[in-house]
Write the structure tokens for this entry.
Amino acid sequence: MSSSQNGAAALMPGQNSYWQGIKDCIPTLLGYISIGFAFGVVGISSGISVLEVALLSFLVYGGASQFIFCALLVAGSPPAVIIFTTFMVNLRHFLLSLTLTPHFSHYSLGRNIGIGILLTDESFGVAASKLAGGSRLGDKWMYGLNFAAYVCWALSCLLGAVAGQWVENPEPLGLDFALTAMFVALLVLQIGDGVSSKIGTSLTLIICTIITMVLFSFFMPTYIAVLLSTILVAGLGAVIDQ
Amino acid sequence: MSTSMPMFWLIAACAIVTILPRILPFALVRGVKLPAPVLKWLSYVPLVLLTALIVEGMLVQEGGTLAVNWEGLLALIPTAVVALWTRSLSATVIVGVLAMAMVRLLF
């Protein structure tokens, strides 16, 4: 993977286009639509306004943090707690961005910030499966991917907020599970592509992650367990893969 | 269709703390060539992180205890089968949502 540091010159023409990025985002849109819609409904039922749903979706732009924001608000938590929890829940994006930086380091700082600012678990997953398949990443492709996701997310949240005046509880629809389903599909793409020679390592790491996640979750909030497990078990992967 | 100033500033503060972790690595690591072991470590982040996020969805933390999200675990089975079989994001999401709706209808 480190060979992709060679730069954009090695990119095939057409591979690095906004349009290709938007096209590669399409398979993930159902996920954004489901979760965004569910968020809009949950937002309204936790007493925030349509405008506030829109502000959260456009400015905070994070599924987990937006849901937790509403839950804490309903629980009457003080602002400092809400801000700190949002920070912790989203801290894993530091790892996502860090993972992508070597592939974009030949672009300007402005472009890099443009790429990072709209990064999500899913757009990261799509980029990582591109890498796992042996492709390189381009800035325009990444912009297209991120931006399509951003617009779709915000619109879905708004739609959910409007629908929230009629739908009181989105739970029976099963929409919240779209997030986990998306992660499952992205994980399968990680195991299958390119690294099939290392399938044993992949399975070992998956089992280790399950164990550390369950263990850590006894002692700390799950979002911190996610962060800690990722740091440790990815490190284990680097040690095994010498 | 309204908001208050304190609410606006709360959302703005939350926006800042979510943007920082996203852009800081890009700002800090630029121009630094990361050593090979670090790159190797980072190459395993997607696999481990996605696994961790799935496991997180299977756990419920409430009132200081840890429980299994049985609904999620049940819905996970057909979802994983379809993901392995089709390798399609859309098909997996559709089956996942339908499976969860079924589980909640039945149990």
Observations:
- The two ends of chain A are 15 Å apart (CA to CA).
- Chain A has two domains: 15-193, 196-242.
- The CA atoms of residues 16 and 141 of chain A lie 5 Å apart.
- Chain A has a mean pLDDT of 88.
